[in-house]
UniProtKB/TrEMBL annotation, chain A:
Coiled-coil residue spans: none
Gene: rsbT
Domain Histidine kinase/HSP90-like ATPase: 35-134
UniProt cross-references to Pfam families, sorted A to Z: HATPase_c
Name used for this protein in its record: Anti-sigma regulatory factor
Record InterPro entries: HATPase_C_sf, HATPase_dom
Organism expressing this protein natively: Spirilliplanes yamanashiensis
UniProtKB/TrEMBL annotation, chain B:
InterPro entries noted in UniProt: Bact_StressResp_Reg, STAS_dom, STAS_dom_sf
One Pfam family linked to the record: STAS
Protein name per the record: Anti-sigma factor antagonist
PROSITE patterns with a match to the protein in the record: STAS (PS50801)
Gene3D superfamilies the record matches: STAS domain
STAS domain location: 2-113
Protein origin, superkingdom: Bacteria
UniProtKB/TrEMBL annotation, chain C:
CDD domains registered for this protein in UniProt: STAS_RsbR_RsbS_like
Keyword Lipid biosynthesis: no
Segments traversing the membrane: none
InterPro entries: Bact_StressResp_Reg (IPR051932), RsbRD_N_dom (IPR025751), STAS_dom (IPR002645), STAS_dom_sf (IPR036513)
Domain STAS: 159-270
One Pfam family of this chain: STAS
Keywords annotated in UniProt: Phosphoprotein
Domain of life: Bacteria
Keyword check for Phosphoprotein: yes
Name of the protein: Polyvinylalcohol dehydrogenase
Gene3D superfamilies attached to this UniProt entry: STAS domain
SUPFAM superfamilies attached to this UniProt entry: SpoIIaa-like (SSF52091)
Amino acid sequence: MNAEPQRLTVASDQDVVRVRQLVRTVAVAVKLSLVDQTKLVTAASELARNTLVYGGGGTVEVDRVDNGRRAGIRIAFVDSGPGIADVNLALTDGYTTGGGLGLGLSGARRLVDEFDIDTEPGRGTSITVTKWCR
Amino acid sequence: MERVPVLKIGDMLLVSIQVDMEDQTALNLQEDLADKIVATGCRGVIIDISALDIVDSFVGRMLATIAGISKVLDAETVVVGMRPAVAITLVELGLSLPGIRTALNVELGMALLARARFEAEGGGDAGEDDETVAAAS
Amino acid sequence: MALGTDEIGRFAGFLKEHEAALVESWSHRVADGLRGRLSQTELNRQIEELFRALSEALDGGAGTVEDPNAAELRAVLSELSRSRARQGFTSTETAVSVFALKDALLAAMDARQADAGTLRDFIAFSALIDELGLFTFASYAAAREELIADQAEELLELATPVVKLWEGVVAVPLVGTLDSARAQVVMERLLDALVTTGSPYAIIDITGVPAVDTQVAQHLLKTVVAARLMGADCIISGIRPQIAQTIVALGIEFGDIATKASLADALRHVLRLSGVDTRRNGRKDG
């Protein structure tokens, strides 16, 4: 019953903008509240930029989900970059290797309901986030 | 590459961000503003973000950098029109934009700049001299 | 347990044959259970509608309540449960409206001097009626839950007014326990009000909040920080002595956020900040 997942390639700045726009469209379609839409799009923006900057580009897949009680959105960010050696450290506020504010990963985690990260040095990084309707 | 226009109004610069900016556009804006502050001698910068439906850490950093640059160039920056949902998200994200002055709308932002200038100049007459210099340059 | 095709046919036939008597005795029994809280006309209409829907479902070959041909029947049952739930009937009273059909059937069969076959049919029919009853029960519960959710939402709306106190000053008087969902609504309302009224000052009055724990304090702090990001100042007022003690005991840091004992103090503070003369004998001439 779910619509087909939509996939975007992230290879440039413009693609990050496209990810934001796609996530917003889907967030509106599943009727997330305005604040939740904003949180999700912001998280997607942070993570898509990570995919581009740290992962050397990759793909983003946006999917509508339903757990029987609530509808939601699941977004997967996949890259085949260098991976993250110490996930706990990377999830610490203020930790950065890219000269940013170090809030991308840890901040994005606070903006979504579910956050899964699968990474290994040399094997790339895959982050899946989910936001449910209230 | 899209550029965000920087308008001069009186002795202030007004930037109204109307598009979902690419990261490079944000960096360009940073440069354009620095150039414009020097070129015009303006002492106040208002950045209107009421059209932005998100502010992520990149744009947050851009705002902080602009505030820092203008400070060095002796100008005060005020960010105006942040939407409630954006503010709530920034708090959750952990971005508190320290060192950035904010106001609810352009009008209040202009009032804030005028007051800041008044205070910075000791609330006295010194301001007029400065303005004459700025206008002459 | 689904009814066989033969049983469905016999059930449908039986209903047709005894329609008038069954409807009458069914309505009668339901009316007894509801003790006059529903008008007889209304009740008759419901029972007739239900009877017709059941007959049609059986004619369509539906042996269970889940059968696609029983869609209309399910709709009628849901509607019945929903209206009963909204009118304040209990779940038992609602389900009995369906189960009463069994008694009516039994009475109609007794009159014909039941043999073993008829009794077997009765048991089979009963099984279907039980299913209908359970379905009613489920719909009733769902309807009640919807009702509760609606009311909770209305309560949220009711309980958080944002009032304009002065030019450029809005206030939210918080009353009652502040849970996460409510805190979120309050936060959004207040911030929206700041934008729409262009007010650079907001006062959150917590006189009516019975207790402040770390979570509530956290929400208040987030609201204040968000308001600041937008360019508005937030003051928290109405901090009762016990609450002040809890705040200190829990080690909650309000940092540089202005807190005042009463709403009046907070308003005076704000007016002073915005340059309004608040002395009692403030000279306005000159």
